[in-house]
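Just wondering, does anyone understand what follows?

——
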Amino acid sequence: MRGRMMPLEELEDRIARETPGFRIGNPELLMFGGRPVYRIRWRTPDGHILVLFADAETGQVLDIRGR
């Protein structure tokens, strides 16, 4: 991995500002195109389960599935 990974708590705070809810289960750390990416299951206040993919170094949400 090239850079430092963002602390998971900080990443969750960033996600919650954009998509209210909370993480369920443990995130998975995957590699896409040579970059570390977290796969995070996220429960919204209305009960929907989303799967978010976020760059583990920058915290940028790359994709949200389940909307």
